[in-house]
Write a structure and sequence with these properties.
Chain lengths: 499, 328
Amino acid sequence: MNNNDNYIRFENITKAFAGQRAVNDVSFGIRKGEIHAIMGENGAGKSTLLNLLHGVHQPSNGCIYIDGKMTKFHNIHDGIVAGICKIHQEINVVSELSVMQNLMLGSELSRYGFVKKKEMIKETNEILRRLKCNFSSMDKIGPLSAGHKQMIQIARALRTNAKIISFDEPTASLSNNEVDILFEIMRDLNNQGITILYISHKLDEVLKICDRATILRDGKYINTYEIKNTSKEELIKSMVGRDVSMFAKRTKPSRVRQDKTVLKVENLCGETFKNISFDLKQSEILGFFGLVGAQRTEVMRTIFGADKKFDGKIYRKNELINNKTPNEAIKNGIAFVSENRKEEGYIKEFSNSNNIALASLSKYMERGMVSRKLKNENSINQGSYVGLYPNDPEFYTNNLSGGNAQKVILAKWLSTDADIIILDEPTKGIDVGAKTEIYKLMEEILENGKSIILVSSELTEVMGMSDKIIVMNEGKMVGELDKSDFSEKDILSDALGGN
Amino acid sequence: MKKFIKRNSRELSIVIAIVIMGVAFGIKEPIYLSGDNMKDIFEQSIIYGLMALGMTAVIISGGIDLSVGSALALICVIISKAAVGGLSPFIAILLAFAISITLGLFNGILVSNLKLQPFIATLGTMSVYRGIAYLVSDGYPVLNVPSEYRKLINGDFLNIVDTSTILFIGFALFMYFIMTKLKLGTYIYAIGGNEEAARLSGIKISSVKVKIYAIAMIGTGIAAMIQVARLGTGDPTTGQGYELNAIAAIAIGGTSMAGGRGTIVGTLLGAILFAGLRNGLIVSNVATFWQYVATGVVIIIAAYIEVIQDNFAKIFKKKGSETQGITV
């Protein structure tokens, strides 16, 4: 292996959290000036590896060499000083401040404690020009788009003279147009000699922009591929190590009761969407597919009473309902599993039994008081039904893995009498094993005569699980397909807004 | 047993602190540990203890109530006037409950319906209630509260326990019952922990919040009854800064100011520790100015213990069941 291949060298890197090896004996090199993708399923160890490089965490074992020198970063700041910068997945900017203030935050130019505004504006404008940004240094950050906010992060990295920049899922919140601009900038940076590490789930993006790709699986190094000598199929295969279509697949025959409509939505309008109409049948999984910005979550939140309804009618078993609050929706038998588990799904100070009981507390009353015993019983029953591990009522949900936390939330809703279950991105950020379990669980829910609305951005998931798919684009319904007409190409082109 | 220690580590650590404090002051001034002095300490803890017990629920829900000190003065003035005016003591007591609930409801409506930040809303009512107390009393203390009233509250129950002690313990049990046995209690913890998740779980946030502020103020209503009975006057200037003492007792008791976690037992112990400290400083003749400094230092240490406890929990988080929040 020549030195050129080892500008950054990971050498037998292991990182364990509480005994669990998130990264396990990983060794590989990154060339100077390349765009190198690190890929893998959720939980494969990509983000951890990156955090080790940046000094956020320190390896339990092994060494990282940069340009032949061993690194020992104690924190992310050490990394920045050494010329390594990270563009975060979440866009963190201070929205009340201007572009310039955000860019300079923490390293303002000053003399005797007074900021040197003119110089800072000049420097900001220079960087913005280098990034071909069309906004000005004095604009407020707040109203700028997600893509623009990301540019500010990149600009901050450039200001520190970074030689290595890593991007962790940078396109997650960007529109297609913004992705193109981002890629152009990445190529520009690359031409300026900056080495780029790129973490993404999105294969097409990796194939488009990267020179090489390293695959991790379950914390272990699998292989590094030259992009020009590989194919999408090869990458997928090495990422999952088994056949992709295995996961999201119905194992039992579908028993949709076409004669029984449990939910009928007519011309529903909200702040960001218009004229949504559909029928949900008993024992049906109705898929909602769309790209980011399709407003699917907003439609569901409106049906659930969490957002304001502007117009339209909702019928539940032929009876007109009007959910003004989630409380009313729950009484009408609707459950909503939000895509933001931490922010909207569970209470981090609560144990499993309390989280599971939260939406159905009236059921565990004994002589007017909440009974701990009944709550724990329910927690254990529901926990074993959803396959929770550890199925301990006293365990804090916040300390569970993503997949198990999701099972707690499912258990919470299954404890209610809801027979319409809205699942918003139910497998987001969950490892493959837990995903399969959640798919199985969805089928069991159907067996009990309940119905599911599945909102998902994973095409394989929607296609594999749904009886019917509704495709949305920018707040409008653009397609409705029955199972026999499912085709990846049609659904995607609908979602993209093409015909 | 192990589970019990783990689950109640914060409360046990306050008990240990109280014991250490007792031994330290007791060595310096043996009179500190005499039965009479211990009774004094307990009685001194009652007024802001009652206020703190109520406010614990508010703080666990993620709010705060700065108006309790002013509300104390207003309730004191009104029931004194009523008692002096010849109203029967029982009616005066009922009046104290009614006014306290009204004042609490008003705070609750400002916070939940007008969506004001609790700090600002109750900062406003703190001034409003104080002003009304002056208006009602013309700025002068209401003197000569009839002895029938004073005896009713200040007397003994069957010659064994002070009536005020019974009221204090009774209210503590009432709050404990609400926080651990009723749906409302779980909802309070849930809202303080994650308001949006609570709302999406079907909890009616506004109605819960109004209830919390109203219930919390009952503690202040009882404190006012006791204050009037002890002093025999309704003073519109009373209670200034009591809200801060109450918050201090709550903080010492391990309730997080960010909401979501804390216990009634912790606050009860916090109030006793706080009173014991102030009493001990007086008994051992520490100069008044230094008493302030010492009290402040204890509050800061208590807060710091909370911080390092969290860090310890993070470091030793193997099984992931460190004590936090609701444990019922």
